[in-house]
Write a structure and sequence with these properties.
The chain is α/β, with parallel strands linked by helices and 336 residues long. It is built from 11 helices and 14 strands. The strands form 2 sheets. It has a 7-stranded mixed beta sheet with strand order 6-5-4-3-2-1-14. Strands 7-8-9-10-11-12-13 form a 7-stranded mixed beta sheet, covered by helices on one side. The relative contact order is 0.14. The structure holds zinc ion.
Length: 336
């Protein structure tokens, strides 16, 4: 296409205005294709409380680009400071800024697994953080390697190595030079049968336990963040074969369980990678959280949300809500 500059004539302007009808038609087509699921409302930043602990959903969506939902990401706030970034899915870079976050006060970055809808914006977040002048090392904790999936340390190498990284110019993150914090990678073992592990313990404040979960051939983790006897539990992407997660947390009564709601219960959905709504209900029934939140929402999963609720309710009778981007959930907000 040839691009010209200069004043736009009246006739051209009229044509451009007429062309505004096209996105509306596209929206209607997309709505029909999504089984009538209206896109989520445009997110408005919801400040987390200045005191206490809260988990903010930066991205409530999945791998398919859908309006108003970034890829999966969470931010733990304690007393008004962001302390943990959990996943950095595609689109979450913008939400990170909208939430008012920076890497300056982070204790660590946690990754559930290395799919692009969970780690695709990590390079952008780090690139932005490079302007902050933080020099204190920063832990990056995530799964180990498997065929077609680098481990967390290797993932950072491939992004940032000064010799061979895709973004070699940000290689200061790997040796703590060039005014960048040294990233300290931790690969967490995810092999079947591996026990859960405490991966972070900020004494007197909170701790994080990583649980290997089953996500088909993808090395993957779920996380529990415990703060003063309360807890946020994040399933990550997991199938119902995630025994360590289920047994390790059975009866633990998390304050809020964030369940990744990727598929509905219909045939043709990618089973073996994700929990169906009925299987999310079984998990919630076993863990018995005060509140269950469905996140990693997609049009295909929301198209049958009432069926999902009914399937969940056969095993879990607590409150169930669907998250939106930038919603903040404080410990103490849970209703039951
Ligand atoms: Zn995912």
């Amino acid at each position: 296409m040839r691009i010209t500059t200069g004043l736009i004539g009246t006739a051209s302007l009229a044509l451009m205005l007429a062309a505004c009808d096209v996105p509306e038609q596209r929206r209607e087509d997309a709505l029909a294709a999504a089984g009538g699921v209206e896109p989520a409302p445009s997110p408005t930043p919801e400040p987390c409380p200045a005191t206490g602990a809260a988990l903010q959903v930066l991205g409530s969506g999945g791998p398919i680009a859908e309006a108003a939902r970034a890829g999966t990401s969470y931010l733990l706030w304690i007393d008004g400071e962001p302390r943990l970034l959990i996943d950095a899915g595609a689109g979450s870079f913008l939400r990170f800024a909208e939430a008012g976050a920076s890497i300056a006060s982070l204790d660590a970055i946690l990754l559930t697994h290395l799919h692009a809808d969970h780690a695709g914006d990590l390079a952008g977040v780090l690139n932005s953080g490079g302007f902050e002048g933080r020099t204190q090392p920063l832990a990056v904790i995530g799964p180990d390697a498997a065929p077609r999936f680098p481990g967390t340390g290797e993932f950072l190498e491939r992004l940032l190595s000064k010799e061979s990284g895709a973004f070699a110019y940000n290689g200061g993150y790997l040796d703590g030079t060039e005014n960048k914090p040294l990233l300290e990678a931790q690969d967490i073992t995810t092999a079947e049968g591996t026990a859960e592990a405490t991966v972070l313990d900020v004494s007197g404040e909170y701790s994080v336990t990583a649980y290997p979960v089953h996500h088909g051939p993808v090395p993957a983790l779920g996380y529990a963040v415990e703060i003063g006897g309360a807890s946020f539990v994040i399933t990550g992407d997991q199938s119902a074969l995630s025994q360590t997660f289920l047994e390790g947390l059975r009866g633990s009564q998390p304050t809020i369980l964030f369940a990744h709601h990727v598929i509905n219960g219909e045939q043709g959905q990618p089973r073996g990678l994700h929990r169906t709504p009925a299987e999310i209900g079984q998990l919630a029934g076993a863990l018995n959280p005060s509140r269950l939140l469905l996140t990693h929402n997609m049009e295909r999963s929301l198209s049958r949300i009432e069926d999902s609720r009914a399937a969940i309710a056969t095993s879990y009778e607590g409150a169930v809500d669907v998250t939106q981007d930038l919603e903040c959930f404080a410990l103490g907000d849970e209703a039951r």
